[in-house]
Amino acid sequence: MLSRTLLKRILASPARFNSTPKTVVPFRFYSFTQAEQPRIRIGSTAPNFQVETTKGAIDFHEYVNGNWVILFSHPADYTPVCTTELGAFSRLKPEFDKRGVKLIGLSTEGVESHQGWIKDIEEVETNGDAFQFPIIADGKREVAYKYDMVTEDDFKNLQAGKPVATVRTVFIIDPAKKIRLIMTYPASTGRNTEEVIRVIDALQLADGKGIATPVDWTVGKEVIIPPTVSDEDAKAKFGDFRKVKPYLRYAKVD
């Protein structure tokens, strides 16, 4: 815990804040302890943070602003797997736009490094097209800490003040700022963009229609009627449906 005197000095320091609106001058966490780390679960409110990005300073909750958001992390700049991932997500931004989804990446380098890396991504992955979304500069690993995006060994290094890399974590956050899905990969394994789009479609359909989606579901396939819905109510809501077991019923939805 910070002493009251130290906290007053921090808040009073002219370097703590900048008079320019939404400019963030962060200071380092004084500890990275497991006891103080936010618990990130499905249904948690996404922790807020203020950071510099390649598109300027942001307040994350303001960035959400009633949209779905995908926040995904990368171990470091100028790394091969990350380069392919960021390029793929940039190319697919029109698909996310159709679904009302905003993208934001994160890497543990500064904005200047990110901007140089983006030039490489545009050269080798986007066919020269402009990169389409912001990348967070998390040099202090504060967002990585808040969202628990490091390995067990790297968490120990974080506590010791040593450099760490984030793992490949994907957070899908809804317009109410609730975390709805988490996918975490080791640093050696690239993500599947088709799966990210698939689960966005599944989450949005479930919210809009009150259904669940079965294994390997994609748009246009049958959905599952929740067991909490009676046969009578299912008939009224979905019309004809397919009953395999009392607890397993399929329907078509638009």
Automatic annotation (TrEMBL):
PROSITE patterns: THIOREDOXIN_2 (PS51352). The keyword DNA-binding does not apply. The keyword Oxidoreductase applies. Thiol-specific peroxidase that catalyzes the reduction of hydrogen peroxide and organic hydroperoxides to water and alcohols, respectively. Residues 40-205 form the Thioredoxin domain. It comes from the Eukaryota. Keywords: Antioxidant, Oxidoreductase, Peroxidase, Redox-active center. This is Thioredoxin domain-containing protein. It comes from Lodderomyces beijingensis. Belongs to the peroxiredoxin family. Prx6 subfamily.
